[in-house]
Amino acid sequence: MARGNPISNVKRSLVNRKPPTPVRARPKSVRQPFPARSPAKSQTDAPMAYHVSIRVDATLHQAISEAVQSAKLGEDFHHANISDFIREALTDYKNGMKLTAPPQADRQVKITSVCLTAPLYGFWRSLPRWQRLEILGRALETKLKRM
Hints:
By secondary structure, this protein is an alpha+beta fold. About 45% of the residues lie in helices and about 10% in strands.
């Protein structure tokens, strides 16, 4: 025989139930740090803090893109993309590279965004504002010819 009303048994069990134990916060997962870099850091290892949008001649942009891709196919991974090439050309010009490419007439341009380190951004800002893009275009063309 069953003991009493089954509904009252459920109510009684709910009344006599212990309060739930508080849920402990789970510890956050600890991310492993990246492996240490070599002690000799170059300027390209510095954090890229400044984003600059530049206009590059469309044919020059295409030529640089093809040069970077062909270098990758030849297993030369010095330049990962066009931005690396632009940063290196600007750094070379900062370090005294002579511009051998003649100035180009106004052509169709392509806008590219580049991240620069603080020293390189300072150099970019020190260039005359109305000649920055012309200087960069000549530096890119000179570097492309030397590649």
